[in-house]
TrEMBL record:
Name by which UniProt lists this protein: DNA primase
Zinc finger (CHC2-type): 37-61
Cofactor note: Binds 1 zinc ion per monomer.
Family, as annotated: Belongs to the DnaG primase family.
Domain of life: Bacteria
Organism listed in the record: Pseudoduganella violacea
Domain remark from Swiss-Prot or TrEMBL: Contains an N-terminal zinc-binding domain, a central core domain that contains the primase activity, and a C-terminal DnaB-binding domain.
GO BP annotations, alphabetical order: DNA replication, synthesis of primer
Quaternary context: Monomer. Interacts with DnaB.
Amino acid sequence: MIPQSFISDLLNRVDIVDVVGRYVQLKKGGANFMGLCPFHNEKSPSFTVSPTKQFYHCFGCGAHGTSIGFLIEYSGMGFVDAVKDLAQSVGMVVPDADDRIPPAQRAQMQAQSMALSEAMSVACDYYRAQLRTAPQAIAYLKGRGLTGEIAARFGLGYAPGGWDNLRAVFPDYEAVALVEAGLIIDRVDEEGHKTKRYDRFRDRVMFPIRNTKGQVIAFGGRIMDQGEPKYLNSPETPLFSKGSELYGLFEARQAIRDAGYVLVTEGYMDVVALAQMGFPQAVATLGTACTPTHVQKLLRQTDDVIFSFDGDKAGRRAARRALEACLPHVSDNKTIKFLFLPAEHDPDSYIREHGAPAFEQQVQEAMPLSQFLLREVAGEHDLGEPEGRARTQFDAKPLLQAMAPSALRLQIVRGLAGMTQSTPAEIEGLFELAKPVSVARRAPPRAGRPEPVGLELQLVRHLVAHPALALEIDASALAAFAALGPSAAERLGQLVQMGCALGQHGGFAALAQQLKEQGGEYDAIISEIAAEPESDVEAVRVFTHGAIRQIKGDALKAELNALAGSGLSAAEIGARYREISAQLDQLQREAEAERANR
């Protein structure tokens, strides 16, 4: 787990204007920067980035967050990856409690990663340059209906024939990094001695594969004539794991948001051809089955995923593997569908033969996951016979067990029960499903804390906007918060504790990121603060001190009024009366001193 102190330090070092500016064109507008929101379509800019708050906010769609949140939402990174990316940009190393790698070894690993990234970038530039002078490769791409514009968008290139063309590109052709990056192959004899070194990719159209940051991490090479393999991919490297990456995701991110869904295909050419024909929201798996990691990445980008598979047997097998990868991530607010084209077509050939409107119709009529699952488990079993129904249930059991309890799982259970002449409760009991939905009596939801109002709301807003103020709140103030009620005392105590933990340099962005990780209780307040001009911290400090004095004074006066009926002796009442009066006088002196110092 990454320490919160590191997150705070990181957000203090990075500049959100630089982070967002890599992806959004920003212009100075008063104290803030403005641009078109990358999270929804708009023609006039309502997206603001505040350098003082280190926070972004869109007045159109309400999107807001820190530099970390922006990378997560825009690039589809996980939290840890976003933190590591930002840390690397400012020369920080993310601490890891489970990290046992010595610092020297870690530095060596980082140097290796940089060397591999540089090698891939140089190779990509070389292949792109070679395409301009390769008439046969240009003719092949034109024959597939691609324009120069689309080839440039995806960075397509050409690896010439010959065994060692990269020798002219890399001064040290014998460098270990070239083998580790998958650009070069070392041939060895039976005794393990290297006998020859040669280029992996030769006489192929090259498709660079990028990660979510846009860095080239691998290549796919397509042969232009007959031969095997038709596609040659980079091997697994320290930069590239094909079970984690999706071709075209970097290029498709904005199109996915615009379209509202992502289309997952099986090949490079499908992605490029679909982009050419008006479907730039397409991505592809990299010569491997769809994995749960792929599904996670896709669902970070959009709530609607459509898998497109060829209609042949191989396509059906791929669809079944994608279904299994999706099940652990299925939820009621996500929609996953499966598109099956006629057996003789892939997306590239179908859209060229039938046109974009016909393909759009196919997309609209894609099969929902629930329907595909039930069709898969039914297979060719005879549902008119007990054996067929039992076999259907047997095949369905591991699939339903992979799903989390949800309304969608219940709907599938009900569908299966109807097919197999059972009840939903019988299915859930027979399958030993976690947290059965159909038979469980749900307890009423626990009410959350009441929304803050009045003085509590003002204090909450100030402690969120200026976390360092928490360092000025002492134990007596925390005790006085009880006068506002148990919920208020708990909330204000939590904010004071978090603000103190962030320290003197703790800022709004760091606390907002921490609160966001804990849930959505403070989302509305954070959004309001992000949308407002920067408040005067000195004025806020004066108000906060005054509010705390008011709370303390009101609590003391209430106790004073209740002394007569407290059951104490006359002497005890007198002593307590004098103590309370002295404390009220002290509060009055503090207020006068603060007014005199203004």
